[in-house]
Structures are given as structure tokens and as C-alpha cells.
Amino acid sequence: MVRLRRVPKTLWWALALIGAVAYAWLFYSLFVGPSGFRWRALYGDPDYPQGYEIHGIDISHHQGDIDWGRLRTAMIDRSPVRFVMIKATEGGDYIDDRFEQNFYNAREYGFIRGAYHFWSVLNGAREQAYFFLQKVNLEPGDLPPVLDVETKPDNVSVEDFQLDVLTWLHIVEDRYHVKPIIYTYYKFKEAYLSDERFDDYPYWIAHYYVKEVEYQGKWKFWQHTDVGKLPGVKGYVDLDIYNGSYYDLKQLTIKPFEEFTPDSVGLTPDSLHLDSLSI
Fold first, then answer.
1. Which residue of the set 53, 100, 127, 150 is catalytic?
2. Which candidate, 137, 142, 86, 139, places its Cα nearest to that of 112?
3. Model confidence over 61-108: pLDDT tens digits?
């Protein structure tokens, strides 16, 4: 009869440590991190922030086919859905496959619409800015362009990261003559974007399962849950509120501007000199 050799205790401890690290990473990714499920099983249906009357949602291909007719009559805490933020692009070469359809339908069904770019650590700021401008054509009445920034490369300093974000913001601002909206979660804002150069940009803060936004600075939008349920939308959808009146929201939108493109005013990757920008 063959006897198995005893496994050294050090190997057992090493395997146990690897298992614990893997479990912790998986638990964080699924339930705690900014892209996780955020304790849905424990918290259940979301509470609605009190004192706000302008509600909206943000969507991407994850919501699939949307019944816009039903969504138009949907109510959030007895208030209509006023605005829809729509994922447009990511990095330097990805466009959400539902963007064009969602972007068109949002205006057709009477919503104030916005488009956002998801920041990638794999592409440069210029490349991402010009890709967004190439794929997204915002019009008067739309919300300012949005930069969704939630990650910083580990090998880039905070100062250089801030310059990269400012590069994207300045390039896009030069196109639309309006300051883009910055979307992030409040701890990321405090850790990496707490610089006076960002103070003039409207903020869209993600902070879930709290009665109030803990971020103490000025903000325009609050994404307060990712487990909203609405008629016309299958599955979960992010719910947002606007920090102001409907009139204020309309005032934030892009005003009529002269038709031009980045090429027509010399704003091309080869011709733009960031040294002239105030960063």
C-alpha cells in the first residue's frame, strides 16, 4: 500500500494565504469596488434622496433594448425622469454598441441627454479626447460632455495623472466651449482630483447607500444607486439626481454655437500645443 507523503506545513500556509488573497480580491471586485454589485443582496431596493426633485438615469449597452415609450412615463419617487446620461466611448477605440440608438431616442422621447467617455489607463489623453470628439456630436440642448474617470495607472504620479485628465478636459472644452462634467466616486475625487484646477468643472459624484453625499465640495449630479428599477428598462439601472431646479438643469446645457469641427479650427492631434493651455 502506497502511503502519501506528508505535506509540509509551510505549503499549507502558503496555499491558505493564496486562497485568502483570492477570496478578498473577488469579494472586493463583486461587492465593494466602484464597479461591483455594492451590497445589493443586503440593501435591496434603493432609497431616494430627500429634497431633490430632478431625477435621471445613466445607461449603456448593459441595459439592452429600452422601451422608450414606457420610460418616458416612468416616475422616480413620484417625479418624472428628466435626463439620461449615455455611455458613448471608452479608451481610444471602443464605442458602446447602443450609443447611437440610445442617444437618438433620448432626444426623440423628450429627455435632456448627455454623453460620457469612460477613461482608460491603456490610452493617452489626447487619443481618448479626439476619439470621443470623432464619435460624439453633441447639439444645443444637450448636457456638456462627460468624462468618467475612476482609475489611475499605478506607474503614473498623481501630478502627471492630473495633467492627463486636464488634457482631455481642455481638448473637449475647446470643441464645445463649455466645461465638461467630471464623473467619479467621491473617494477617488478626494484622493486624485482635489486640485484647484478642477474646481470650475461640474461634478457628477457616485456615492451609494448614503442619505447625503459625503463629498463636501460643489457638485451638480449625484449617482445614488446602481440598483434602480424602472418601467421600460430591463434589469438594474443607475439612478441620479440633479442638484438644482429644472430651470438650472436647462441652463447647464450647451447653448447654440457656430457649426465647426476640430479640423476647421485647427484642433487636431498634430496641431494642438498643450503648452498654451492653462494646466
1. 150
2. 142
3. 999 999 999 999 999 989 999 999 999 999 999 999 999 999 999 999
